[in-house]
Amino acid sequence: MTAKKALVEGQDWAGYQSATPSTSGIHFAIIKATEGHTFVNDKMAKQAATARTAGLAVGFYHFVRDGNMEQQAEFFAEKAVSVPGDSLWLDWEDSAVSCAEKDAFLRHLDAIRPDHVNGLYCNLNFWFRHDTTSFCGKANSLWIAAPSAPKGNPGIVHPWDIQQYSEAGGIDRNVAGFASRQAMKDWQNRYLATKPAPVVPKPTPKPPAPAKPKIPPFPGASHFRLGHSDPAVTQLGTQLKKKGYSKHNDGHHGYNPGPRFTKYDQANLRDFQLAHKELKGDADGYPGPLTWKMLFS
After folding, report:
1. pLDDT band at 3 (very low <50, low <70, confident <90, very high)
2. CB 16 within 8 A of CB 252
């Protein structure tokens, strides 16, 4: 795709960055609001106030995780400090979230926040290898992460509105395809005449009787070697997170279980072993049959 003729500069901010980032030389800011079902960026309100004081076009994004898409969309809509006319974005980077689930999130978000432009953020790998529908919200708004591509030319055919073109210095830099800051704000305001649909609370279902946990067979110690990838590692990490042993992570998006056995998996498993007297005598962060059984019990 050829470069867009007009581009304005912007940044996206998350909780690991300053609560009052510099707005010099930029025209828009998109702020991380939420992640999954429980995480809220505690710097979001100050970051949004900083952006609004500087007159920037403002947006918010939700880092989607595996789980109920409607509940995550409602959690995002509730917690984001957005006002009508701000843009809302789904950050799709977790391979446990399918393309169909991505589409379901965006459609439900539009139903409960029809006065906002909503769109999709993803990187080139997800766009080319995970997406099958090219659905980017009702306004067909794609925010594509392509930091290795030239600014303004991310190397895709599909229309795009924003490109993340650099991560240098710990700052996510973006360009948007608009002639000016006001043109971007006008684009974000396009649905302001639409009245939001009321959110009808769902009845609380009667909780089912607790099921006896099913313990999968221990796959063997050879499946857990640092740097080695195996589906059993994802099973291990998912269960560690479920049990609340997930404090060791890369400091950006939290502990994200995956198929590669990392030092964070090992450290979190060691914490689990140290917390159980039957395991603490051999707490090395590698699973054996007893560790596996107790983790899934």
Report:
1. very low
2. yes
Please give the Cα distance from 241 to 193 (Å, whole number): 43
| Largest distance between two CA atoms of the chain | 65
Residue 37: band (very low, low, confident or very high) from pLDDT cuts 50, 70, 90: very high
Which distant-in-sequence residues (6+ apart) come within 8 Å of 70 by Cβ?
104, 105, 108
- Partners of 31 in beta bridges: 13, 60
Integer angstrom CA distances of residue 168 from 15, 155, 287: 17, 20, 38
The three-state secondary structure class of 32 is strand
pLDDT over 70, % of the chain: 96
Distances (CA, A) of 84 to 18, 118, 160, 196, 286: 25, 12, 22, 10, 50
In single-letter form, the type of residue at position 146 comes to A
For residue 201, the one-letter residue type is P
List b or e across 45-79, with b for residues whose CB sees 16 or more CB atoms inside 10 angstroms: ebbbebbeeeebbbbbbbbbbbeebeebbbbbbeb
Compute the CA torsion angle 181, 187, 189, 194 (nearest 10 deg).
180
CA torsion through residues 108, 109, 112, 116, sign:
negative
Residues paired with 163 in a beta bridge: 144, 175
Q: Which of 224, 246, 210 is nearest to 291 (CA)?
A: 224
- Structure tokens belonging to residue 133: 């529908």
Q: What angle do CA 271, 272, 278 make, to 5 degrees?
A: 115
Buried b (16+ CB within 10 A) or exposed e, 268-282: bbbbbbeeeeebeee
